């Protein structure tokens, strides 16, 4: 399993775990430190992940509920999604 990381300062990270399956990026799980939950860091991470994947021309399967919800609320990323 691999992950995208977003440093938050103080040694804290927000992370999005993924794997590659049949050439597609499968987003599995997103984590933001509990003490920073609800402050928009997950959305900033999701934006960065989807932008990186779009710039690389990748297809995405969003198994992570947070990433799936984020993509559903941002139509510019809908074209990336498979499944």
TrEMBL record:
Keywords from the UniProt entry: Acyltransferase, Transferase
Enzyme category, top tier: transferase
Protein's UniProt keywords contain Acyltransferase: yes
Gene Ontology MF annotations: acyltransferase activity
Annotated EC: 2.3.1.-
Pfam families: Acetyltransf_CG (PF14542)
InterPro entries reported in the protein's UniProt record: Acyl_CoA_acyltransferase (IPR016181), Gcn5-rel_NAT (IPR045057), GNAT_YJDJ (IPR031165)
Ranges where the N-acetyltransferase domain occurs: 1-82
Presence of the UniProt keyword Transferase in the record: yes
Protein name (database record): GNAT family N-acetyltransferase
